[in-house]
Amino acid sequence: PNLFSSSILALDAKTGELKWYYQTSTHDLYGFGCQGNTALGKIGDKKTLFKACDNGRVHALDAATGKLIWSFLPPSVKYLNVEHDFGKQPDYNKATAIPSNQPHWQCPGITGATGGDIAVAYGKVFYATTNFCDYMRYTAVEPSMLNSTGTTFPDKPFEMPKNTTIYALDAATGTPSWSYDIPNVPHRGGLIVTGEMVMAASLDGNLYGLDVNGGTVVFEKYFASPLGTSP
Prior knowledge:
Layout: E1 7-11, E2 18-23, E3 39-43, E4 46-52, E5 58-62, E6 68-72, E7 104-106, E8 119-121, E9 124-131, E10 134-138, E11 151-152, E12 163-170, E13 176-183, E14 191-194, E15 197-201, E16 206-211, E17 217-222
Antiparallel strand pairs: 1-2, 3-4, 4-5, 5-6, 7-10, 8-9, 9-12, 10-11, 12-13, 14-15, 15-16, 16-17
C-alpha cells in the first residue's frame, strides 16, 4: 500500500509524534499526491480538516482523529487509464506486472486534477478542478538513470480538451452548491475568498470574481497575460 505516500498526516506540534494519517490513494501509480494548502474549519462544533488532492477529490476529515466525514469526486473531471474509485484496495499485481509500453493517454495527467489551493469561508469549501491529460509511454528505468521518471512523452496524435470548473461545496456535507466553468484552459494557482467573492486568476489572462452564494460573475478583469498563481 506504500503507507504514508499520497497521505494526509497529523503530527503532534510539540513532539513530532504521528497522531493519525489518512491515505488518499493507496499504492499511487499516477502521481496523485496531496499538494497545495490544508485548511482548518468547523462542522458544527467539530474541528475539521479540508484537503484537495491531485486525484481530484476533496476530503473533510475529523481534525482530532483523521476519520473521514465526507469526500467529493467531481463529475467534471475526465478519468482515463487510471483507477478513480480511490476508496477500494488496488490490484497490487500491477506493481510487478510488466506494463504496456504503448503510448496512451492518462487523464488526469501528471499534474493532477486539482488546480491549487482551496479556500474555506462562509460555510463553503471553494476549489478548482482542471481537465488536462498527458500522452505518455512507460519506459524501463535502470539503476544508473537517476533522473528518469519511467515515462516519455511522444508526439500527441491530437489535443485533448482542456477546461476548468470552480466548485462551491457545502462544508458540512460536501454537496455542490454551485459550479462555474472556464473553457479551454486548465487552472493552476488556487483560489482566494474575501468580501463575499471567490477570486480565481486564470491562464486565459482573466481575473474572475464570483459571488460566493451563486457563482455569478461580479467582475472579470483581463490582464493580457496568463495568470498561473493565486490572486
